[in-house]
Prior knowledge:
Blueprint: H1 2-34, H2 38-73, H3 82-88, H4 93-139
Helix pairs in contact: 1-2, 1-4, 3-4
Amino acid sequence: MVRRMREMTGLLRAVAGLYEDLLVVMGRERQALIRFQTAEVAVAASEKEKLLRRMEALEKQRVTLVDTLARDLRVPAAALTLEFLAQHAPDPIPGELRRCREVLGRLVGRLREENRRSNALCCNAVELLQGAYRLLQGFMVNVPVYHCGGGFHAARLSGKMVRDEA
């Protein structure tokens, strides 16, 4: 069981490392969004996909390990928290498990904040585009399009006649 708990701490450290990598990629993605660098946004999205696939693999390992530890400790898997493990582990594993819990909690908070910032950025960009579209629609009027000879274009188009006083 001690070996499995050490395996759990190693797995959690690996997850924390991927979270840190994800934070870096999300920061680059946000900066690319701010600068309208679509190629960099696409690269960041690809990197995030790779990281998420690696996280998924680690999560499957974690679930399997939790099930095994729960069976060893004779408790339901849902009751097996890091604090519970720390309370039932021999020294020095409890300190390692608690550190993992603190680090992961802090990283999840940072990921949520970064996600909130990127979401706000995208929502603001959409609002600006919608406002610009409405503004442009206000300039459009439903009048016929004139040819330079004074005739009307037969198609259903709209436009304005502009006269230069210069």
